[in-house]
Amino acid sequence: MHETGIALEILHASTKVLADHGGTRVVRVKVAVGELSAVEPELLAYAWEAAVAGSPAEGAKLEVEFVPARQSCPNCGPVVREPGAWVPLCLSCGSPLNVEGGTELDLLQVEFETDGEGV
Amino acid sequence: MSPTADVRTQILEANRRAAEALRRHFAGEKTLVVNLISSPGAGKTTLLEATLARLGDRYRTAVLVGDIATEKDADRIRRLGLPAYQILTGGACHLDARQVQGALEKASFGPLDILFIENVGNLICPTSYDLGEDFKVVLLSLTEGDDKPFKYPAIFSRAAVAVLTKMDLLGVVDFDLAAVETQIRTLNPSAEILRVSAKTGEGMEAWCRRLERALSAKRG
Asked: Residue B108's CB: how many other CB atoms inside 10 A?
């Protein structure tokens, strides 16, 4: 349960972006969370609400883009699967599969307001 | 529409930078650094005790151990006459690179061949935090059940070595070794899987050789 720490890091990074751009209030933050990042998107959203209280990002929307890991067969190409449903061997040829991606834990976008701008 | 800044940086950028500083430091010192991760009670400290009994007089070793409370694990290592430093996280479920930097300053171990970092017992959170290690080792004990790699895919996909511990309990507990090894290979085709019992000594040779190979590679 380290989503609180992750939420605080997102807050820290996004308020730095806000300061760099001369903004006054963060209204939306978009992050990428990979399937293999060890972060649970729902818990992160919950932790975010608590983390932003009293900060320039209070009330800001946290948009989480979930990035699945990709399994692929060296002979048959990409494997279609649901997140969490790992395929042990290629369903067509029985070869061991490779895993790529899904480790993302990135800040993608920060939307903000500047002084004198209405909501 | 309000102005939007496209950034694309790692959320754990501060930790990444601290980990890179540690990695440069350890590269200069030619110290092999191993980050041990498992659930509580899988046998991290016991594996370390058995490892240090074999390697402790041949190499300069030290252990950094993370726990929420108590010095118990560091005391077990100190009883072997070897240096250990306990990081008390006070509730945090993982170690981060800045805690490791702080602990190394306080511990002042001197030159080391191998530094073992025993993470807080947890299969999830420690996965996200790079500590500047050469590689992660995940431990899974036979009593935890044979469905764990697919349940906790993040750590099993990132650990270079998976150690199946308490092998002396095979036959006592229901544990499908083949199924577990298939799950680990599915998540990480290049993972090395070792079957170990610190109690009987089974697999300890292979584990120690794995460490010595990594140390030779680090020394170049």
From this structure: 8
Q: How far apart are CA B196 and CA B194, in angstroms?
A: 6
B-chain residues within 8 Å CB-CB of A39?
Answer: 128
The arithmetic mean of pLDDT across residues B171-177, rounded, is 97
Q: Which residues pair with B138 in a beta bridge?
A: B37, B162
Residue B186 to residue A111, Cβ atoms within 8 A: no
A positions 82-111 inside 8 Å of B (CB): 84, 86-89, 96-99, 102-103, 105-111
Tokens representing A70?
């990709």
**Closest to A109 measured CA to CA, from A58, A77, A63:** A63
ipTM reported for the complex, 2 dp: 0.89
Tokens encoding B41 = 């009670």
pLDDT digit string (tens) for B17-41?
A: 999 999 999 999 999 999 999 999 9
Alpha-carbon distances, residue B130 vs B91, B99, B199 (angstroms) = 19, 12, 30
Question: For the segment A39-52, what is each residue's pLDDT rounded down to a tens digit?
Answer: 999 999 999 999 99
Pairing of strands B4-10, A105-113: antiparallel
Strands (E), A19-114: 25-34, 61-67, 70-73, 77-78, 98-100, 105-113
Distance of alpha carbon B47 from alpha carbon B161, whole angstroms: 14
Q: Do B10 and A86 touch (CB under 8 A)?
A: no
pTM score of the predicted model:
0.94
3-class secondary structure, B23: helix
3-state SS class at A28: strand
Q: Is the separation of the CB atoms in B135 and B161 below 8 Å?
A: yes
* Contact call for A112 and B183, based on CB within 8 A: no
Alpha-carbon distance B157 to B130, whole Å? 14
